């Protein structure tokens, strides 16, 4: 069984989980160290969620939910959803996303946004199934 909790305290198990999971999402970004994870977990504008296998206690997935206020209201954004390859197909991504949506709603956010590469077909099917609608917009990035 999978249970989702908010990561508040950063310990060796959390750091090890990110060391294992982040390379499954990005080959170009190194896993966050203990200081970076502490900053994320302690930031009042973000929630760091972990999906744990209740039998083993192993973190099998993570998601970051970021909040930001703009003139038109509080917005929420899902970032860096990672599900361990060995745990895929067990509903981990859906559970993490549903918990994030509930937390955003409880915080008063007007919308929850996310992006997903077209090549991540399973993730895109999941988001559509959960009620996300693809927006007709251009997404731009300026690298610093």
Any overview of this molecule?
The chain has one domain (2-129): Aminopeptidase. Helix content is 33%, strand content 27%. The chain has four helices and five strands; from the N terminus they run E-H-H-E-E-E-H-E-H. The protein has helices spanning 12-25, 34-42, 92-107, 121-129; strands spanning 2-6, 46-53, 59-70, 73-83, 111-113. The chain starts with a strand and ends in a 15-residue tail after the last helix.
Number of domains: 1
Q: Give the terminus-to-terminus CA distance.
A: 41 Å
Give the strand line-up of the largest sheet.
1-2-3-4-5
The portion of residues assigned to helices is 25-40%
What overall geometry do the principal axes of the alpha carbons give? globular
Structural class: alpha+beta
Q: Please give the CATH architecture.
A: 3-Layer(aba) Sandwich
Strand content: 25-35%
Instruction: Work out the number of β strands.
Output: 5
The largest pleated sheet is described as: 5 strands, mixed
Extract low-pLDDT stretches.
none
Q: What is the CATH class?
A: Alpha Beta
- CATH homologous superfamily grouping: Gcn5-related N-acetyltransferase (GNAT)
Run of helices and strands: EHHEEEHEH
CATH topology: Aminopeptidase
Mean pLDDT: 96
Summed up, the helix count is 4
Instruction: Supply Rg.
Output: 15 Å
């Amino acid at each position: 069984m999978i249970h989702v909790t908010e990561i508040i305290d950063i310990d060796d198990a959390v750091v090890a989980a990110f060391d294992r999971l982040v390379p499954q999402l990005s080959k170009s970004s190194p896993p966050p160290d203990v200081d970076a994870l502490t900053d994320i977990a302690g930031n009042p504008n973000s929630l760091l969620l972990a999906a744990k296998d209740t039998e083993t206690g192993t973190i099998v997935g993570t998601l970051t939910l970021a909040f930001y206020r703009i003139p038109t209201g509080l917005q929420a954004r899902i970032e860096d959803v990672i599900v361990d390859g060995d745990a895929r197909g067990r509903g981990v991504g859906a559970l993490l996303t549903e918990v994030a949506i509930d937390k955003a709603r409880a915080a008063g956010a007007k919308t929850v946004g996310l992006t997903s590469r077209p090549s991540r077909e399973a993730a895109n099917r999941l988001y559509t199934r959960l009620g996300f609608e693809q927006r007709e917009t251009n997404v731009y990035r300026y690298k610093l």
